[in-house]
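Researcher: Structure prediction, please.
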Amino acid sequence: MNDVTTLTQQVLLAFFIIAVAVGVISQRTHFCTMGAIADVVNMGDWTRARQWMLAIGVAMIGFAALVQLDLIDASKTLYANNRFMWLSSAVGGLMFGYGMVMASGCGNKTLVRIGAGNLKSLVVFLVLGLSAFATLKGITAVVRVNTVDAVALSMPNGADLGALIAAVTGHTSKLTAIWSGYALGTVLVLWVLRHADFWTVENLLASVGIGALIVAMWWVSGHFGFLPEHPETLEPVYLGTNSGRIEAMSFVAPLAHSLDWLMFFSDKSKVLTVGVMSVVGVVVGSAASALQQKTFRWEGFANVEDLSQHLLGGVLMGVGGVTAMGCTFGQGLSGISTLSLNSFVAVAAIVTGAVLSIRHQVARLERSLA
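Model: Predicted structure follows.
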């Protein structure tokens, strides 16, 4: 076994271990973006929303630190782009946000619920993965490329907040991006921590823990798994990634790649990637936590309406997540930590879509009870 194979296996194992930790934390603390938005809309409770905001702040600060220390190259991440694809991010984000409410959770929550014995989420996983694959390479991919993806603003210096500020101020893009990440991340951290009632072990574990794990993935993918010169191609390579770029955690395209790997296992060109290992790791972590806490239980659909809601939600998440280039983790933590403008638009659209979906669900419930 050569050194490249060994290092690739180590990168995959590292992602699996980090994902297991994400699964354990998510299952124990109920870390969930959809749940956070629902808590705010339905009860005015900002606790889980603050968990998400603090996780974003920690991820931003950690990413900026890795770039400043020259441990990773920000221009080589999956989210580095010279095209501001605002329409794709907005439309895809709205679809994903609306769908995740119908499907009882985002991609991460779906995997966490599978680990805890929820068969409804297993169905969502299959539908989400298939619709995501179709939007990557199938019929909805053709629609996506020829419609929303065709609308974009060219930004030669990069479609990120740092490059935008640098263009206005005339400063260096890299330094501006680093200090913008520190500044915005610190604002989020201080905004959350000023609430004394937030200072509990569960809240800090959910927020600081998840944020730090995203940073760990950036380091593993962008530094530990980086080869300046592959011995066969003589080109720089980021080992274990599907995109060939630096990746962190996301749960839309990786679900599609997981199904692809399972269905074509005998095809030697189908190899494990960090995204697939993340999917498996979250399920394993959640299952281990649920079994340890004795909360594991099988759960199925209540009726046909329940099934149809989850099926449609899975489709919307699969199509929307690929169109927006990420989910609540992919754009809402990993992408936004890089200060990508596409991520900011996608996150805003995801929140908007979720709020609209929650209000629609409440209105339907009120009508049924009237």
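Model: The beta strands are 83-84, 153-154, 226-227, 237-238.
Researcher: Thanks, that helps.
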